Amino acid sequence: MLRTLTPATEEPVSLSEAKAHLVVIHDADDVLIGAFITAARESVERTTGYALAEASYEWTPVGEGRTPLPIEPAVLDSEVGAYPVKFKTTPGPLPGPLRAAVLLLLGDLYANREAVVAGTQLAENPTLDRLMFPYRRVLP
């Protein structure tokens, strides 16, 4: 299980960049958009295992043997072999495809705020998987 100890203080996509992407010119949804930026970033990080923002985590690996950290690059904050494992992500430059994946998810979250959308036909966008696939550490 992965638990956030210290959340990211800076997101890879700013509020102004997100609003430009969403074509939002008012401030009424700023808090909501900020929450969606975080949700989109966390989704991309956990799907790919690639750190996009600096944060601290506690992780309890399951199974036997040596297991890689669920999100990297990172540095250990705990002793080797200690459980649970505490680590801090140390992201490098944001790859363009992962930035696009965050924006794509952000747009979807903003446009579809409910679990069910009545009267519309929904379809999956394969672009999201294509953007993230080269960065996945564990293939599906």
Brief synopsis:
The chain has 140 residues and is of the alpha+beta class. The chain has helices at residues 15-22, 30-48, 96-111, 126-132, and strands spanning 2-6, 56-59, 74-76, 85-89. The chain contains 4 helices and 4 strands; from the N terminus they run βααβββαα.
- Average predicted confidence as pLDDT: 90
Would you identify the regions where 5 or more consecutive residues have pLDDT less than 50? none
Sum up the overall morphology in one term. globular
Strand pairing plus helix content: what structural class? alpha+beta
Task: Sketch the topology as an H/E string, one letter per element.
Answer: EHHEEEHH
Number of strands: 4
CATH homologous superfamily descriptor: Phage gp6-like head-tail connector protein
Report the sheet-strand fraction. Answer: 5-15%
CATH architecture annotation: Orthogonal Bundle
Q: First CA to last CA: what distance?
A: 19 Å
Q: Main sheet: which strands, in order across? A: 1-2-4-3
Largest sheet, described in full?
Answer: 4 strands, antiparallel
Determine the CATH topology.
Answer: Hypothetical protein yqbg
Q: Figure out the total of helices.
A: 4
Tally of structural domains: 1
Helical content, roughly?
25-40%
Please identify the top-level CATH class. Mainly Alpha
